[in-house]
Amino acid sequence: MMLADIADTRLDERLLKIELTALGLAARTAATELALASAEAKNSALKSAAAALREKTSAPLSANKIDVDAARAAGRPASFIDRLTISEPRIEATARGLEEIAALADPVGEVTSAWQRPNGLQISRVRVPLGVIGIIYESRPNVTADAGALCLKSGNAVILRGGSECLHTNAAIHACLAEGLAKAGLPEAAIQLIRTADRAAVGMMLDGLGGAIDVIVPRGGKNLVERVQSEARVPVFAHLEGICHVYVDKGADLAKARAIVVNAKMRRTGVCGAAETLLVDEAGASRFLTPLLEALFEAGCEIRGDEHVREADDRVKPANEMDWRTEYLDAIIAVRIVDGVQGAIDHIERYGSHHTDSIVTEDRETAEIFLKRIDSAIVMHNASTQFADGGEFGMGAEIGIATGRFHARGPVGVEQLTTFKYIVRGDGQIRPS
Amino acid sequence: MMLADIADTRLDERLLKIELTALGLAARTAATELALASAEAKNSALKSAAAALREKTSAPLSANKIDVDAARAAGRPASFIDRLTISEPRIEATARGLEEIAALADPVGEVTSAWQRPNGLQISRVRVPLGVIGIIYESRPNVTADAGALCLKSGNAVILRGGSECLHTNAAIHACLAEGLAKAGLPEAAIQLIRTADRAAVGMMLDGLGGAIDVIVPRGGKNLVERVQSEARVPVFAHLEGICHVYVDKGADLAKARAIVVNAKMRRTGVCGAAETLLVDEAGASRFLTPLLEALFEAGCEIRGDEHVREADDRVKPANEMDWRTEYLDAIIAVRIVDGVQGAIDHIERYGSHHTDSIVTEDRETAEIFLKRIDSAIVMHNASTQFADGGEFGMGAEIGIATGRFHARGPVGVEQLTTFKYIVRGDGQIRPS
């Protein structure tokens, strides 16, 4: 690299920093305005954006063609192309998603508790938006609409940074959101899209853009989330991985266990709530193990087991230490025999990722021990881990699932994108000495 | 410094790191146990600790004498000696404080919301402890008992790091807490005291002790909080300063305004909820300004004002830009004339610290504008800012007041020292494709 190139790079970075700082300031100003916006205005913006997507479907479609052609030319794998590609039905689904978010209750201004003090002071705790949310995502362009809409609904401004490979698609979808904001009289800077492919932009977002970003939400693979969690200087709502367990207790009902295990693993293998490890109670293994393995094989699942599991079926491959720590996101499951509910708890606390874990048993006492002792964002009894989802929880859309312990945990819906303040109403009260 | 000294220092630091890492691991193990402890066990530990403090008052008193003598010999100022000194009444107050925390409702296990899904899944959101809390504090030894007790009550393990000048006193108080834990059959490692004066220990805590600390709460002056906020690699619950405002609107009742302004500023000038700036509505200044200034002068307060305020009374000193940004923590107030409620909002959002701000007016509409638009942890109408306190809010004791937007905001009582998990109870539900 020539000295002139280095100088140019630095100039580029400085210009980028200036540009993003200006964008952050605009987002901060928009956030102040958006925090006071009425539910009607926000919902009308969402509905207009949905209408714009439907009316101008050709714009995102032709933009998407540019991105998809470039990705093909770059030799990207089919799974990447699939995530990147949008179609008329996908755009219709995105538009419907915006309308569903519009139909949710507005969390801002909600009084979550209120009480009166003996001196007559009336104290209430009221939801307010968090401020400015930064979203860093990869090749799914629908995140542009989904995340933008969730932030808008919860009164937050948002700075979107999608993958450089879908920049054209994202820009076309973003134009529809901007049109919605403008039609509703809301500041267009409330939903901003970073339009540079320069990777330095991500680092600047992780630094918080000089105080402009309050929280970062990464949406993408483990590498992205890992980088964001280790480098971000602002809070992060995320989960690194979903190493979810199903524990089949000796008190289980076999039919339920079979249905839950197969569904938890195989309904969709690529979602974070998919089970990765099956734990079977030693005391129930003689009754449950073979039928559970059969059902999994039948569903097309590869099984890796400890020596006891391998003894039960010679199609089982050997599991090693790494298998207990692996999020396969594929039709593979690790199976282990454990010593009762305490053995299951010990395994899950050691190898799990505190995302979602489920016990299958008809014994309520054992279930309660599991539910109390497992320290995960979501713990379940007699249900499939694939219910780990904001929609299935009845929260409406979610921006992701968080496994951190602070502020947001589990599905992050519009409520978790708010904080609160206390409002104290008095009639001249002063505090005694 | 000789090379040998450097080597020694490094060895010291390495040993300290090993020691603190072990302490952190012990705290983490204790936290797991404490999360499952019954309310009875935790309350019994608190009551036994209170009893130990009362029975063995002489131990903390003689330990305190060592610390106070050393501080005197080091020429520490009187205010420092006063904060450091404990006495029989102060110990009795500390013991009563422990009993009051024992009497609070146990937040752990509380179901904060519960609902049923159309498919029969029963979802509940249940409070669980945060984990391990690190407290870094200065010369008030009562924090040892108060903070230790609040963390214990909320099911968290705690690592205490008090000022090196009160190490003996803190150790004596800590011994009573440890006795309480032992008597209740709870792990003594649940409340740990770092017993080294080595300042490197603070840096290691701010790093999170290798993942052992979940959140840091600094208790002390602005320098301490500033260091913690800028260096901590884990979440921090704190406020840097309390630049609290009282705005007297043209619609105010003079008698209420006078009482609130004097109380907000002068009841105690050293607390974070003390008012530092008085804003008077231009349209009400002719009626309110002189009586408010009179009342403040009468109470012994120094007044620094803008030119309009100085015209009203020649005892008023000139205020400059820095006065609007200063937390005096003293009998000094800055006074400014503003253009109505929007002028007050603009001033507070520009200069305030988002702690506590109050409007005085009989005009409810104006009050609601202020309550909605001021983005502070606590906003008040017709009440003294000195009510910014967990006890006054009815939360019982607090570990401090937070101005951050994440997780904890306003008074941080036992509830804010918890997080939550979702418990999902089913009867074999699987998720449809």
Task: Describe what this molecule looks like in 3D.
The structure is a homodimer of 433-residue chains. Chain A has 2 domains: 3-231, Aldehyde Dehydrogenase, Chain A, domain 1 (3-Layer(aba) Sandwich); 244-387, Aldehyde Dehydrogenase, Chain A, domain 2 (3-Layer(aba) Sandwich). Chain A contains 15 helices and 16 strands. Chain A has helices at residues 3-34, 39-55, 58-73, 78-84, 88-103, 142-153, 167-183, 200-206, 222-231, 254-266, 285-298, 307-312, 321-324, 340-351, 364-373, and strands at residues 111-116, 122-129, 132-137, 157-161, 191-193, 215-219, 244-248, 275-281, 302-305, 317-318, 332-338, 356-360, 378-383, 401-402, 410-411, 418-429. The longest helix of chain A has 32 residues, at 3-34. Chain A starts with a helix and ends with a strand. The mean pLDDT of chain A is 95. Chains A and B meet through helix 10, helix 15, strand 13 and strand 16 of A and helix 10, helix 14, strand 13 and strand 16 of B.
Radius of gyration of chain A: 25 Å
Percent in helix of chain A:
40-55%
Average pLDDT value of chain A?
95
CATH superfamily of the largest domain in chain A, by name, is Aldehyde Dehydrogenase, Chain A, domain 1
Q: Please identify the top-level CATH class of the largest domain in chain A.
A: Alpha Beta
Classify the beta-strand content of chain A into a percent band. 15-25%
What number of domains of chain A?
2
Structural class of chain A, please?
alpha/beta
* Secondary-structure arrangement, i.e. CATH architecture of the largest domain in chain A: 3-Layer(aba) Sandwich
Q: Tell the overall outline of chain A.
A: globular
Oligomeric description of these chains = homodimer
Largest interface, by Cβ-Cβ below 8 angstroms: which chains and how many residues each? A-B, 62 and 61 residues
Total strand segments of chain A: 16
Q: How would a crystallographer describe the biggest sheet of chain A?
A: 7 strands, parallel
Q: How is the CATH topology of the largest domain in chain A named?
A: Aldehyde Dehydrogenase, Chain A, domain 1
Q: End-to-end span of chain A in angstroms?
A: 70 Å
